[in-house]
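Please, structure for the following, as tokens.
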Amino acid sequence: MSTEMTEKEQMNTTEETNVMTDMDSTADVAIEVKNLCIGYKNIQAYSIKKSLLKFKKSHVEEFQAVKDVSFTVPKGEILGIIGKNGSGKSTMLKALAGIFNPDKGSIDLKGHTVSLMAIGVGFQTEVTGRENILLSGMLLGFSEEEIRAKMPEIIEFADLGKFIDMPVKTYSSGMHSKLAFSITAILETEIMLVDEVLSVGDAKFKKKSYAKMKELISNKDRTVIIVSHNIDTLKKLCNKVMWMHEGEIKKIGDPVEVLDEYEEFMQ
């Protein structure tokens, strides 16, 4: 009997291989975003005052922050997102973290745990930094025992001194950033969302946080999305970069190619 495969057998083998590749590809996706739309309704104070005094209906303006965005992030990938202020970067990140609900479309994190590093998100300003470590950890899904076991390491990394036992409302933006980064970096999740915190803080902490981030993303099972205006950081850390402009994806692909084009566009 001939050992050569018939044309039909070759086609069947190719189809089986394609199906297996598709299944593997689907299994390896950590984040899947489909047709995501997020808008804000803005009622101007002047209109509200007029409506109260003259019983006229307030004029409501809707701003579309994210417009029909779709993309996937494979497990273990480091995706950078860049764009000018107001392009929808932080809004989308907060939607991925579950803080904002989409108006349309879907977000599928494939059952992975997720954390968001961002200034002004997730802290109770009236209580201390130490208490916020506990609260933030619980919101991330960790038990009190797990958080308390990691608390000394978080406090040491944040390096806030006596301020760790003072209300967060007394913190500067740099101190807030230190605490936010330390909590998320030490209480490791499968998906990490980082919003500009690598660029805030003193020079010593920037160096330390950058080194810690490199250590965290070296884990091939961890998926990371970094929103930043720092082109050099994105080129060094990311496998892929997405350029957002006016709520839409303008380009996504190789970091150097996308970022060079972005720089040229912004000149």
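The two ends are 69 Å apart (CA to CA). Strands lie at 29-43, 60-74, 78-82, 104-108, 114-118, 191-195, 223-227, 240-245, 248-253.
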